[in-house]
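Quick one:
INPUT:
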């Protein structure tokens, strides 16, 4: 074999799975096996492979569905199909959808090794060609996204990858991270961009009303059903249906949703005639669905049906590189809506934001800046304009907060944070001035605009002795 690479073998039959593994390992490949398409997806999300060899007919997720997901997750990876004689026509369809090659059962060890060898050679060419296209360009639907942190660039890349496919997407992340923005960006970059985008908040409706919204109902099917209602699956026909906070669905509704997704047709409540639909499904949740499956509060089969392509939204505290551009974006946005000319944030205000953990993520930051713009008395937002929770002030006083550089900045900062935060800011102010001036009291006092006696009084108040500088105050 010319190229010894990593191969993922997927087949629900252990005999075939292990037979292929042994044949490839003898030829020098490193092989990992999966007994189902869902387990294969987990393996693909955890690491990279050079070739995937999968059976076509498998329960739960077919090889064709797995192929579609791989073309999003690792599009450069060649996918080879194993199929029984009766399914050769379907295997040819798989080739049309991007499969590299197929092998009819029964096959010999030499045949599977030859196919893998050929695919590994193709993988090398694809990887070499891909080096010229490592950068992606933001397209339509990204206007609401702000930030270029590595975490967000990874999200942008996944959106571009998944948009052109029809695979189901599961967006996870804490509340306020922008999961619906991701769903809308996927729709805007997909072939369905001109079709309906229908968003449903699964927490906002009672179970009975939610089923009526999703599936529709016929007139007289229950008390209050005074007219026939078209369900959102049909409203979104041809477009995208976004189910937000899907973790809040009851087990009963989960079972009905699973059947609808499997059959690709929906029967209105009280109706008898199934109605076919064609929608792209995107779901989102702020809870760990894997843990819910283990707890028995979320169906494993529905989880596997939804978790074809995962996108995880990072919390704001993990991408603070994006904080400044986000603040600037929201200041400009609310400055325009209120008609106020706000240039930005005072240094002390920005320093306090940097110390805050933002449990409500970008949505909370947006609310904070909106209030601050409304409350601001001048062109700069001051710390007291932001009305941060008390914990933000405590975090600021305990952390490496903003260090003023002039007496005026010190007065401004002292007046605008709680009393408990004054002492560490004052101390940092003095130490920073001394460090900048090689611990020369006279030069430090002149730089910050203070008289030498007043600066010395501040040193005494903070218990700082220049002679002890060797002990390391900072």
């Amino acid at each position: 074999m010319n190229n010894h690479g990593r191969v993922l073998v997927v087949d629900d039959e252990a005999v075939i799975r292990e037979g292929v593994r042994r044949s490839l390992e003898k030829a020098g490949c490193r092989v990992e096996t999966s007994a189902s398409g869902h387990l294969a997806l987990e393996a693909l999300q955890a690491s990279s492979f050079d070739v995937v060899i999968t059976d076509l007919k498998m329960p739960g997720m077919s090889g064709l569905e797995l192929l579609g997901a791989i073309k999003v997750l690792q599009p450069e990876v060649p996918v080879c199909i194993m199929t029984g004689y009766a399914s050769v026509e379907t295997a040819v369809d798989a080739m049309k959808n991007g499969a590299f090659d197929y092998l009819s059962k029964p096959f010999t060890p030499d045949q599977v090794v030859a196919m893998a060898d050929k695919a590994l050679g193709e993988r090398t060419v694809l990887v070499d060609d891909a080096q010229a296209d490592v950068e992606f360009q933001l397209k339509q639907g990204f206007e609401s996204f702000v930030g270029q942190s590595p975490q967000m660039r990874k999200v942008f890349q996944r959106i571009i990858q998944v948009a052109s496919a029809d695979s189901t997407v599961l967006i996870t992340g804490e509340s306020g991270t922008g999961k619906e923005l991701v769903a809308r960006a996927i729709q805007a970059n997909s072939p369905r961009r001109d079709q309906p985008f229908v968003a449903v908040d699964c927490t906002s409706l009672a179970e009975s009303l939610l089923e009526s919204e999703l599936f529709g109902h016929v007139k007289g099917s229950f008390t209050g059903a005074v007219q026939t209602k078209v369900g959102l699956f049909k409203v979104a026909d041809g477009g995208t249906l976004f189910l937000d906070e899907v973790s809040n669905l009851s087990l009963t509704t989960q079972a009905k949703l699973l059947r609808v997704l499997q059959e690709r047709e929906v029967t209105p409540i009280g109706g008898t005639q199934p109605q076919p639909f064609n929608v792209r499904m995107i779901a989102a949740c702020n809870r760990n669905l894997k843990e819910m499956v283990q707890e028995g509060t979320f169906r494993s089969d529905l989880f596997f049906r939804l978790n074809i392509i995962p996108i995880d939204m990072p919390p704001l505290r993990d991408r603070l590189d994006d904080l400044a551009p986000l603040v600037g974006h929201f200041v400009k946005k609310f400055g325009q809506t209120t008609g106020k000319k706000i240039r930005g944030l005072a240094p002390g205000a920005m320093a306090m934001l940097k110390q805050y953990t933002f449990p409500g993520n970008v949505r909370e930051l947006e609310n904070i800046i909106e209030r601050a713009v409304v409350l601001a008395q001048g062109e700069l937002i001051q710390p007291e304009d932001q009305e941060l929770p008390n914990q933000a002030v405590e975090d600021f006083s305990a952390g490496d907060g903003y260090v003023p550089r002039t007496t005026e900045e010190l007065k401004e900062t002292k007046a605008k944070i709680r009393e408990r935060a004054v002492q560490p800011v004052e101390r940092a102010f003095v130490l920073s001035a001394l460090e900048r001036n090689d611990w020369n009291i006279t030069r430090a006092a002149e730089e910050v605009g203070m008289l030498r006696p007043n600066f010395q009084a501040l040193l005494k108040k903070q218990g700082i002795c220049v002679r002890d500088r060797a002990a390391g105050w900072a």
